[in-house]
Amino acid sequence: MYIVLVYDVSQEENGARRWSRIFKICKKYLTHIQNSVFEGELSKGQLAQLQKELKEYIDKELDSVIIFKSRQEKWLDKEFWGRKDDLTSFIL
Amino acid sequence: MYIVLVYDVSQEENGARRWSRIFKICKKYLTHIQNSVFEGELSKGQLAQLQKELKEYIDKELDSVIIFKSRQEKWLDKEFWGRKDDLTSFIL
Predict the structure, then answer these.
(1) pLDDT tens readout for residues A24-57
(2) Which of A17, A61, A79, A80 places its Cα 20 to 30 Å from the Cα of B61?
(3) A75 vs B70: CB contact, 8 Å cut-off?
(4) Residue B11: inside a domain, yes or no?
């Protein structure tokens, strides 16, 4: 299925480290399209694995991760208003 | 159609002011679900109007706005991993 993942990691409680961990885990499974936004095609098993890995780092009181799932990518159109690039090289 | 809007506003060139303007415009049309993420049901006309309003403030070199469009909300499942709340009251 086609996944869009957006995350917001609090800066509290060593947030920069959590942000970096979460970024790296997402990058293993998905394509980075905006500062804290990833997308990609995952199987149910891969999504479950991603969730398992992320749950070790997400602070349930402070951080937010939202997953949008569409059975097919074609059901979801995408438009860029403004800058469009892969920021990975600036971040890692 | 059902819209998910995610934005990333650079802190450069008076970014905090742009961020706040963009936030307020999005809030007029959509529901705030995460720091820089909005969702909602819009007509084509409303989406065009939102784009027109945002274009006045988006810096095309610095800022990124991504729009995901689905013809029907039911084609897009949503999951929250971690915190789930409306942050508006903390921001405005």
Answers:
(1) 999 999 999 998 999 999 999 999 999 999 999 9
(2) A17
(3) yes
(4) yes
